[in-house]
Structure formats: structure tokens, C-alpha cells
Give the backbone structure.
Amino acid sequence: MVEEDLKIEVLFPETANLYGDTHNMVYLKQCLPKAEFIETGLADEPYFVENDVNMIYMGSMKESTQERVIEKLSKYRSRIIELIKKNVVFLMTGNAMEVFEKYIETDDGTQIKALNIFDLYAKRTMMNRYHEMQIGEFKEKLDIVGYKASFSMSYGDNSEGYFMKVVRGRGINDECEFEGIRQNNFFGTYYIGPLLVLNPLFTKYLIKLLGIKGKKLAHEETAIEAYELKLNEFSDPKREG
Amino acid sequence: MKKDFKFYFAQFSSKCVYGLIKFVKLFKKSLNGSHYPGKIALKFDKDFLGKIEKPEKIICVTGTNGKTTTANMIIDALEKNGFEVLNNKLGSNIQAGIACALSTGATITGKTKYDIAVFEVDERSSIKVYPYIEPTIILCTNLFRDSMKRNAHPEFILDIINQGLEGNTTTKFVLNADDLISCQIAPENKNKVYFGMDALLTDTTECHNIVNDFANCPKCGSKLRYNYLKYHHIGNAFCPNCDFESPEAKYLGTNFDFNKMKYSMIETLKDGKKQTEYNLITDSVVNIYNQIATTACLKEFGLSDIEIKKAFDDYKLVESRYKEEDYNGLTIKTMLAKGQNAVACSRVFDYIKTDSGNKAVMLNLDDFYDAKTSSENICWLYDTDYELLNDPSIKQICIAGKRRMDHYMRCLIAGIPKEKITVCEYEEEEPALLNFNKIDKVFVLYDVYTIPMAMKVKEGIKEQVDIILEKLEKNHVKISGNNDKDLTSEETKK
């Protein structure tokens, strides 16, 4: 694969853009300047419906937007499953992950049907805000640092397909030691914000997964120094999470 | 709600605690217990706010940005015009802060000593305040993204405010016509007036900021268009596909003259329009909004044009938020840039960019408490327009503090050249790293709880200026003595 041939679709950036999540793609663009980034608005048909893409990204959104996104993507459920099977890279940050679960239960017990691709469900409690800093083991010698801030947690068994094993913090819920979802190259995580900026080693992994080898990241030395500082800080048990 | 034994006990306890705090403060001035009496009152009686007698007229000021400045301006204006105003200026803006103000402003039996109160109300506290207090006026400055930890997103905050206002039919709302998010406050209540700001030369019709939380029409979902847009979603909008548009401002600030520091307020009356000229207290757009909001609120309260003019005659913004000083030819501006508040910081960055001259910026935005005990969530940096600092007039950016590498990385992603950025561990080290040759102004930015640090940095800058001047003077004497020739300017260049 050559960088020029890469097609990366960013879903609904005008509205799935909370908590600095948009900079995952801003940074990836700086790392892969020759790749094509396609931004799809909520009113438009996603590019992946009729075309092949190498990666799809969607970030955190308001709860009302989440419901509109579910409605929008429900039409393309089978195509999404096909793309996951074809090893297309998906990165879903914050509550974007919940769109692919069975349903989202609201404060009053209402169940909002989601895409039902993964056997998990989310529970939303608007007066509880879960916030913490986290470390997760993505693979051997690759820890991921980041932050969570959400109104919801997910439930169900993700032990066979998780994004990370939690080193510090909680998994998809208080009782769970596994964070997020992974199936083939689908990565879903409650981590918010610029995950790829904060985790240069994971970004390198992701770029390799896209078929680009030996690529130097944008501002790589600074990114790695910032990552190592943060990893040390997060590893300090005296620091409140 | 009727006063009962529980209430009297709560009021008595609150008064005792207040007295005790006052006494201890005689010996320990730094004691901070600004809302503790209110906390005690609420502990003994959770309905305390409902039972205590309140002033006849209450103005509540809320909103993400500008509520402290605006509430202070309203209080000062009323006091200048002879009113005695109960307020929570020195206390906190949450439920306990308001309980504290009402308790201390009342007798031991809970009878109020004031006719007027002005309270700043934290948006998240709305749900605990408004069910007990039906203000005469609620002024909302704006609603933006704020701390992602507490406030999530503006729609969440709007919902909280509206939950607090459920069933409220008596309050008059003074809302920002240029902010379509806060315009949605109290949808059932029709008793609303709006304020706004006319187009400025610097306005655009497209959003150039990272954050725009009102991009689409709430009626039909189309992308909104703007007659003029100031920043983020603040401007005069319309939908190209349906009849949705910004409401008409009853109070419109216009004809801004930044040389004479004057502006006009066009007021829409039943029988036409009236234009009144006022002094402009600031050249920053966000604070002009605060001034317009204050004027609109005071007009609705019943103050005359002359009384309002009097209030702004010699008004100075609170120095802890902004101060400008000229020190031997170098302008030092200390500015509060609320950390973890992307929009507030972006506004400050925009102000720096558009200010005249060559500048250096000291970015000291770490959260004081997080730096001590935790690790600050830095996602907000990526909602903040660091790109505004990537400007030829900004010659140097100094970064210090625990999160220095995160700010450094953010600056690099914003395209700021590495050579312009200086990174050091501690804020106090920054002044010695300044390159004075290139700059006319230094901006020292700080967060809410780091004012003492900012003052130290400022003093450090002055010391550096003194050192340079001393060196120049020595060289001048030496050179003049040896060669009888003034080469000071050559030395300055070196």
C-alpha cells in the first residue's frame, strides 16, 4: 500500500467532535499528508457505502446526536459488518463506540436501539459523570494512556474482544477489567480526545495496520517525550485518577 | 415555603459560623470559607433557600463566560446609583454561596435587610437554585463548551438550566441574540428580551474556530448561514432552507469607535428606535458583549440612560482578570485565560493575535489543583484555537508547568515553528528566556487559581528589563568614555 492510495473517512465531523476528538484526524493527516481524508456530514451518504475505504473514524458526540447517528447508520448495518470482516480499520472514540452496541438505556429506562453489531449495551445516567485518567495494555510493551469522561458505561462480556486490558482505571464499567471493543481491526474505546496524539506508539501501529511501513510520525520526538512523561505520571499511584 | 424550627436553627447556625469566620479572619486573612455559612444552613435545612425571605428584586447572572464580569458590572452600576445591593461577589456562585449571601443579608429570624440582590449563578447549580428563587431577571451571557469533566457539552448545561426553570412564569429573561444556544433557555416563557452586537469589520460569514456547537438549523437540520459571525457560533444566523433565524435584538450595540472608546446602543421601542451613546470600557469583543448585556439588563431593571452612562463613566475591569502596565518601554499584559475552558482561551488567543505590535506570550495555563494532586485532562487543548498563536506578530511563546510537553505538542500541531517556542519546567524560569530584542509586548496568561504565580512572572520580566537597561547603561558609559562615541544602539542590536 502506498500512502497516496489511502482513503480515510471521517464520519460527521461537524457534530461528532466533542472533547478534542477531531484532532485524531488532524494529527493523522499531518502524519499521512498524502492520504485522502473524506469528511462526511450527517446529511450526506457515507462514502463507505459505495466505495472501499481503508479506515473510518468517528468521535464523541452529544447524546441527541448519538440518536441521529444511530438512525443514520442503521441503514448501512450490513455494509459496516462487511467492512469489519474485510479488516477495514475502524476507530470509534468516546460514546461513538456505543452506536455499534445493542442498545443504549436512558435514565428513564427507555432503550434506544443501536446497530447491534456487538453484544454489549450502554446505560446512560445524565447526572453521573464518569471521569478518570487511564492506562491500558494494548499489547505487550504498548500501553495506551488517556482520559475518559462520559455519562454512560457499557455492559456485557467483552473479554473475548477488548481494546485494552486496564492497568489503571475501569474497563467499560466499574466491574470490568477490559476497556473497549476490538474485532478484527475495529477499535472502539471510551477514551476521549486526541488519542492518536497522546499515544504515538499506537498511532505507529495503526499506520502499519493501514499498510504503511516505516513511517515517521509528525513531531515524533516531542510526541514520544510527552507520552513517556504522561505514562510515568499516570503510573504514580499517589496521583488521583 | 413557611419558616419552621428547622429553618430558624439553620439560620442561627449559619449566622454563628459567619461570625466565627469573620473573627478568625481578623487574625488569618487568607482564610477561605466564602460559602461555609450557606453550606451549614443547607445542611440543617435543605429547603433553606425557599424559606428565607428574599429581596423584592433579584437579578441572576449566569452563562459559561463573562458572568462574573457582568454581575460585577451590574452591582457596581446599581451601587453607583445609590442602591444597596446584596450579592455573592466575594463568595461562591453555587447553591451554598447564594444561601450564604441570603443568610448574611437577613436578620436572625430570616427577614431580609435588602430590597435588591444580584447573584452570579453557576449554570450547573440552576437546578438547585431556581426552584427556590424566582428571579425578577435572569441574564444569560452565553453558553459554550466548558470543563469537559463537569459540563460535558452546552446542550447538557442548557437542559440543566431548563430543568431548574420548569414552571417559572414570572422571570424576565435577558438573552444573547447572537448565541443561539442560550436563546433556547426557558422555551415556554415568552417574557424575553435580547441583546446583540452589530457587525464588526473583523467579522466573517464562516466559522474559523475548532468549536462551533450550533452549526445546523434546529428546525430542518440544514447548515446555518451567517450574516455576520464573530467567533465560534456567536453571530447573526439564518437557515437558508426554512424560516429559522436569530431573534431580533431589542438592545443592539453598534457604531463602535475604538479610538474615542465610544459605542451606541440602539433600543427598539414600541414606537420606534432610540439611539444612545455610551463609553466603551474595553476593546475586547467578549467584554463588549458583557457591557452590552449589562446595559440591557439595567434598562430592563428600570435604570435611565443617564444612570447607566454614569456607571460606565470611569469603569475599570477587575485587575485580577486583566492588567496592562508599561515598564520602561515594554508593555506587560497579564490576562486571565480560564484553563480547561477552550472558548475562553481561544478568545484570549484571538485578542493577542489582533493586538498591535510584536509580542511574546507566556502560556501558564495548568490547573493549579490538578498539577498538585492529579494529572490534568488535556483534551481541552485540542478544542482550543492554538492556531491563532501561529501569527507573524507573535515572536515567542514560552511554555512552563507540568503540562508543558502537552502545550508544546499542541503548538507544533498548530503549525507554530519550533524556533519560536521556549519550554521550561517552572514558570519562574520564563522571564530569563525572553528574547526582548524582538518584542514590544509580553502577555502573561494564567488560570483562575494561579494569580500569584503570574505576578511573580511579571516581576521577573521587570527584573530582566532592569538587567538589560543596566547593562546598556554600563556599556554606554564605557563606550562613551573610551571612544567619545555613542554606540548604544549597536549594543542594543547585539
